[in-house]
Amino acid sequence: MKNVLLKKFIATLNTFSDGEYLMAKIELEAAPILAGIKPSSLMTFSKDSRNLYQMWETFKDKCCAILRLQYFEMKKTERSVLVLFYNPVLISEVVLRAENKDFLCGMGYPAGVSLQQILQILRERFKHTFPHEIGLFLGIAKEDVDGFIQNGGAGCLFCRYWKVYHRPHEAICLFRRYDTARYTVMKSICQRNSLVNMPA
């Protein structure tokens, strides 16, 4: 059933105009954010696949306004742009959580700065490396971010949306919720397209 839906979704995407295509891709990736269960997601738009880079440059504000998504461009090159989509309420809750504030302070983030300032610091770090603390912003448990850093990405219990080092049962339950949100979006996009293309 899931494979049938995925094939239908891909076929539907291929019928879309550039603006519709970009919005559907963002809506699918951001589905757990839109469902209120994930604070943010990273997405790369490159010139390699249907020139998503140019689509992003052209339609980003319109798409994000329709989806009611905030975004922050983390890293931009001539060929790609890395974008953080986020729910400002949920991501603020993450960075204000006591254990996460301590963790970020230990990573060099000043205390008492705004979310936008924190994101600007994060963007600056992306110029030089891939900052592993991004995991906190993406909704990854601090223990799993710690586990990844301390083990160099090795020795995890399992890997799905991220490498899990602690409380695997909780991670599995959360991943199922992410999957449900994504399947719901795929169904919705396919149904909307079917209704649009119905004969009068």
What does this structure look like?
It contains 10 helices and 5 strands; from the N terminus they run αααβαββαααααββα. By secondary structure, the chain is α+β, with helices and mostly antiparallel strands. The chain has one domain. It has a 3-stranded antiparallel β-sheet. A two-stranded antiparallel sheet has the order 4-5. A hairpin with a 3-residue loop joins β2 and β3. The two termini are 29 Å apart.
- How far apart the termini lie comes to 29 Å
> What's the gyration radius in Å?
18 Å
Give the mean pLDDT: 92
Q: Identify low-pLDDT runs.
A: none
SSE string: HHHEHEEHHHHHEEH
- Helical amount among residues, as a percent range? 55-70%
Task: Compute the number of strand runs.
Answer: 5
Largest sheet: 3 strands, antiparallel
Whole-number tally of structural domains: 1
Widest sheet: strand ordering: 1-3-2
Outline of the structure:
The protein has 200 residues and is of the alpha+beta class. It is 58% helix and 12% strand.
Descriptive key words:
single chain, 200 residues, alpha+beta, three-stranded antiparallel β-sheet, 5 strands
SSE blueprint:
Blueprint: H1 2-13, H2 18-29, H3 31-34, E1 40-46, H4 52-67, E2 70-76, E3 80-86, H5 88-96, H6 98-106, H7 115-126, H8 134-137, H9 142-151, E4 158-159, E5 163-164, H10 168-196
